[in-house]
Specification:
Elements (H helix, E strand, L loop, with lengths): L4 H11 L3 H41 E3 L4 E5 L2 E6 L1 H7 L12 E2 L6 E2 L20 H12 L4 H6 L1
Antiparallel strand pairs: 1-2, 2-3, 4-5
The protein binds zinc ion.
């Protein structure tokens, strides 16, 4: 820990004309400062590593069969569940509906049936009855004929 009162002491020593003592104390403070800067840099790197590990674990998803790694809106994988659980390794498996065998541990995964996509109920957007607007605007515009309304 850097003692800030030492800086005041350095200043007082210079004012009293004790330049040699002040210089020695200043060099001692400088050495401590450099050491603290090194410690801060090392701790920042450590925090970054922990942050990366936390981010990685938050984006590693298990779907019941495989692991997937989500980066942004992209899902990478599938990855072997055994290798991930046992060794913490991400071993990519073949994509698609093919038989998947992990090249590293040899685990065989059964072919997963394609997910059943439920047909979505046809949903209609908001319907704006145009003829109702035209009719209502006719009331506000008075005697505007169809030709005048089109030319506007
Ligand atoms: Zn594996």
């Amino acid at each position: 820990m850097l003692d800030y009162s030492k800086f005041k002491e350095v200043s007082e020593l210079f004012l009293k004309g004790k330049n040699r003592e002040a210089t020695l104390l200043l060099k001692e403070l400088q050495t401590k400062y450099v050491s603290l800067c090194d410690q801060v840099s090392a701790l920042k790197l450590q925090v970054k590593e922990y942050d990366d590990i936390l981010n990685f674990s938050q984006n590693l998803i298990f779907d019941g069969n495989y692991y997937w790694l989500k980066t942004g809106s992209v899902r990478h994988g599938p990855f072997c569940a055994e290798c991930c659980k046992d060794e913490g390794m991400l071993v990519r498996l073949p994509h698609g509906n093919t038989k998947k065998i992990c090249w590293r541990c040899g685990k065989q995964y059964a072919v997963q049936p394609a997910p059943q996509v439920q047909p979505k109920e046809k949903k209609m957007g908001k319907v704006i009855p145009l003829h109702a607007l035209i009719n209502s605007s006719d009331k506000h515009c008075g005697d505007v004929s169809d030709k005048q309304a089109v030319s506007d």
